[in-house]
Amino acid sequence: MNVLARALAAAVALRAARRGASGGPAPDGPPGPEHRTAGASPAATRLVAVLLVLTGCAGAAVGVLLALHASTQLLGLAAALAFVLLAVALAVASFRIVPQETAVEDRPPVTDPQTRAALTETVRAGGDGVSRRALLGGAAGVAGAGLATAAAAPLAALGPRPGGRLGESRWTTGVPLVDEHGAPIRADALEVGAFLTAFPHGADPRELGSPVVVVRLRPEDVSLPPGRRAWAPQGLLAYSKICTHAGCAVALFRYPLNEETSTSPALVCPCHYSTFDPARAAKVTFGPAGRPLPQLPLRIAPDGTLQAAGPLSGPVGPAWWGVGHS
Amino acid sequence: MSTQVPAEREEPVGDTPAVRFVDERLGAAKVTRGALRYVFPDHWFFLLGELALYAFVMLIVTGVFLALFFSPSTATTTYHGGYQPLDGVEVSHAYASTMRLSFDVPMGLLIRQTHHWAALLFLAGIIVHVIRVMFTAAFRKPRELTHLLGVLLLGLGLVEGFAGYSLPDDLLSGMGLAIAYGVVLSIPLVGGQLGTLLWGGSFPTAGAFESRLFIAHVFLLPAAMAALIGAHLALVARHHHTQFRGPGRTERNVVGTPMWPGYALRSLAWMCATFAVLLLLGGLVQINPIWQWGPYEPWLGSNGAQPDWYLGWLIGALRLMPPIEPRFWGHTWAGNPFFGGVLLPTAVFGLLAAWPWVDRRLWTRDRLDHHLLSLLRDEPGRVGATAAFAAFVATIFLAGSADRLFVAAGVPYEAQVWVLRAAVFVVPAVVGGLAARAARRQGDVRR
């Protein structure tokens, strides 16, 4: 530590001395900016030697710390210290030990008209005596296109054609709603203003068509289109949980606790703020989504558990060319 | 070391054995001497590209280490390891191996975090470098191709960074990939096919994607980027650096410090300083703690989830775009994410790439070579346009952190989105106008 302190003091003194000495860089005008001074400062040389040795010590310390199962923080500090020391050593060497030089280098000319003329002639001469260039060019184009097709064709093996399967789901009439662990969901599990995520019994929960968000609103607040009046028994509504904008989970349910000041209930996607009104068939009320969340018709089985009363009202997830209308 | 060396050497001095060995086998004396005498202009502006270069070196070194331990598979396994709260949880191999890297592999967390910080610094370095190039018009003839290669590098860098943080299959990875899938699907006509082609089926259940992403992240993209960096640097060296006007500086020369020994040492010092900062960040400042996000499940999401900052302008664009999804004749001609996720970046990168030619038409107006950099006061129009362009992207970027502002200041994100939708048009006009006026004023003062 003492060595380091002395070395730093030397560096500061050295810098002050340099600044005093080079008060006037003497730009004598026309002669140009070139100059060169050589002569290493003994203090700087000692400082660099010390810094290089310390760099070695810090590097070795990383190895020792690793063997001692030291924390990430200590390892990072030791490795960073080694590079800091080396950086300072190199910088001091660059500015105080090796010759200081400002040089003027001529920029290489980009082109030489004569050489270019010769090149043009060489290229042109390659076509001497060739007739019917258009035919050859066209034929070469056909060859290129054919080979490109042959090269691209295997890429088709990367994935299946989407067909109508994008946006499909396993929900059909009578499929029970289950939670993450496969347990059935009872209608009375939800109070007004509560929400949960449900999956079709027996299906892969990770398929985009699987997760639905179930919310309970007051039945008098629900206003579904005529064909969907029976889809929300006791104010229970289910919608696909995959945002129709970009496929994130519509993970936020906003429910007003104070009717005087709050806005209406909303399902919100945290990614890009698409906001859907669960009381009105998930109509888009804000944000970039281009269509409502598909709705799952619900019914309550005699044992009090929730079941799908039909398939989802439309394709799930982000739109593509063939998504069609919902 | 401290002996006085004559400025001009007429007599050949005795060969150094190493120099002789190399030269008698490669005949590279002339080229090597030229390289050692290569002159670098003395200005910190020229260190920005080097910063990105050294961050890239760090990315390669740390990335190789990570690749030795990472397992690119979404097949499930039961996690057991140093992080107790997730012990016994079913996760993917990708997630489990990243957890192992973070908790059980010696120095793994330091290297993983340093890698992530290096990616952020790499892109920050490139972006600040591009801004410098744009404002000083360093892209002018004969450097248009150098600029194009740089723009391409920035584009690949964004994709590479996204691919990198999408690999661990944590919640943030999955949310990002879900959006990427949505953006691909939204492409007119071919989006559906392209999506299933890239993912090998539907997201996220098709298992093929993870290994494809891995190959892209550790081989295809880095190889392409290394080649582009090589070509970019070769072009820089071919024309030599640009320089600012100054005593003795002309269009035909470069004034500054020669490579050997002064600049080489300085640049290596810069490299070591870059490494030191990255290791310090990697050791002390936590980044992407995937154990806090948890493994990805399609039905999970969280607010406050942010991509890495360099993608902020894309998520911002997705948020600001009004709900437009044109449908005609039974087809969706473009899904909404197409506008913010494909059209905007294409336009921004297209304009960046075309900028040297735009600039020549509007401001430079000649076909001469330009090696002396333009100053702000030289061309107020260029300054205004560049500032407006930067302000446009920056305003969209703001929307990318709207939920931060919501948490910090309680401004509802609906209000933010409405304000920013207008600001996207107003702010660039105002900023551009002010910048051009300031540049013109500066020129008047000088005159």
Strand order within the widest sheet of chain A? 3-4-5-6-11
In the CATH classification, which architecture of the domain at 177-308 in chain A applies?
Answer: 3-layer Sandwich
| Derived structural class of chain B | mainly alpha
Per the CATH scheme, the topology name of the domain at 40-284 in chain B is Cytochrome Bc1 Complex, Chain C
- State the separation between the terminal residues of chain B, measured CA to CA: 48 Å
Give me the CATH architecture of the domain at 40-284 in chain B, please: Up-down Bundle
CA-based shape of chain B: globular
The arrangement of helices and strands of chain B along the chain is: HHEHEEHHHHHHEHHHEEHHHH
CATH class of the domain at 177-308 in chain A: Mainly Beta
**CATH homologous superfamily descriptor of the domain at 177-308 in chain A:** Rieske [2Fe-2S] iron-sulphur domain
Strand segment tally of chain A: 13
- Widest sheet, order of strands of chain B: 1-4
Low-confidence stretches of chain A: 16-29
- Name the CATH superfamily assignment of the domain at 40-284 in chain B: Cytochrome Bc1 Complex, Chain C
Quaternary organisation: heterodimer
Q: What is the terminal-to-terminal distance of chain A?
A: 74 Å
Per DSSP, the total helix count of chain B is 16
The biggest sheet of chain A, with number of strands, parallel, antiparallel or mixed sense and barrel status, is: 5 strands, antiparallel
How many beta-strand segments of chain B? Answer: 6
Query: Can you give the helix content of chain A as a percent range?
Result: 25-40%
Protein name (chain B): Cytochrome bc1 complex cytochrome b subunit
Enzyme class (chain B): translocase
Catalytic activity (chain B): a quinol + 2 Fe(III)-[cytochrome c](out) = a quinone + 2 Fe(II)-[cytochrome c](out) + 2 H(+)(out)
Pfam family, one (chain B): Cytochrom_B_N_2
